[in-house]
Amino acid sequence: xxxxxxxxxxxxxxxxxxSPAGTxxxxxxxxxxxxxxxxxxxxxxxLPAPLGGALPGEVRESCPPPxxxxxxxxxxxxxxxxxxxxxxxxxxxxxxxxxxxxxGWVGIDVQDEVPxxxxxxxxxxxxxxxxGTPASIxxxxxxxxxxxxxxxxxxxxxxxxxxxxxxxxWRPTVSGWWVCxxxxxGSGTRLALxxxxxxxxxxxxxxxxxxxxxxxxxx
Length: 219
Description:
Blueprint: E1 2-6, H1 22-36, E2 44-45, E3 59-60, E4 71-72, E5 78-80, E6 85-92, E7 95-101, E8 106-112, H2 117-126, H3 137-150, E9 171-172, E10 178-184, E11 189-195, E12 202-205
Parallel strand pairs: 1-12
Antiparallel strand pairs: 1-7, 2-3, 4-5, 5-6, 6-7, 8-11, 9-10, 10-11
């Protein structure tokens, strides 16, 4: 799995920051993977890890994802069916993140550490926490990543399966999926991933500001 992230928003023709469309972020990530994957066919290389090495891994880049936009399933998941690549995208404020993998459906979520007591209390109820115990931002990000990977994002579930206690790396959930999460150093943001099974992870930043000419990509 390749993670790409950017700390800069795309800008409109007048230079004003705009909210990053999911397709803009995915196109930026695909371009970065392709630009970094020009070494000999079949080679694996370790990519720079802005996650502080918390999610080590190597990614084989001999067959990068296509440049054309991915298809979207009726349940909201992104993929390139003919090429066997899957994607998930998230953004929070000025940070955008994309997961690209050939390992099956994947979910990614980023959440800022900002006060949201009512939402976290509601999530605590859904997760079966003791009465009055709110969920954490880490649980929020992991729950969202799981819902995206499972094709249930945007729905209002009546109940969510409890999440496993945190430790570094991938952790199994009672639903059969796996999650992992890390705080992004210095950003006050939590990044979470979900997949059907543990995947090796490499991370790299987007090019500054994303690829040229991509400020007006439709969502």
